[in-house]
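Before the break, one more example. Copy the sequence into your notebook; we will annotate it together after we see the structure.
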Amino acid sequence: MPITKLKITPRYARYYFFFALVLIALPTIMLKVLPSHAGHVIVSAGKMNYSVFEKSVIYMTQHHGFGAMGIILNKPLNQERQTHYKERFPTIQHFHYGGPVGINQDFFLMVPNKENASGFDVLNGSLLMEKDPSEFNRIIKDEAIASDIRLFAGYSGWGAMQLNREIVRGWWDDIPFDRLYINTKNPDKTWEKALTKVLDEKKSSFEPI
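Here is what the structure looks like once it is written out:
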């Protein structure tokens, strides 16, 4: 029995083209409706128990319709990886676990910058080292700068609209960034401070005017 091939008429081709455009534009359209959390921190809720993000406070470096990225502020880096980075960059003194994505090859640098409202710039260190080694060396070899740099191994990432869905489900809360949230010695206390800020903001939003 001969196989009948499906013929796409010009009319249906226009429909397919229209729906393809909608799918491509959907993340951008949704971003106009939903806020970006870039520059803020998100705090994991109790629903994140037994997850890699349990009791995490994450600084969001990017958040748009096509995805989101951030670095965990309050998790220490294990001793093996600390030793690895200390040998590579002896001028840097502070090391953190940034997240589960790219943990073995990607690292980010939180470099002090008084001109930035947050007080720092977050740079993709592994990319900078590859694309502009002279600038990378200038940063890490200046001991006055490097002593205040924080290195984050790995990062946290979300696909298109994934973070927005998780926030709607109650997995995360958004609050302004505070340097108090950068803590490797007592990460649980840091999470508690951030969670207290979340609860205070929720309480104030329900107080009568």
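The chain is about 40% helix and 20% strand. The CA atoms of residues 85 and 95 lie 8 Å apart. Try to locate both features in your own notes.
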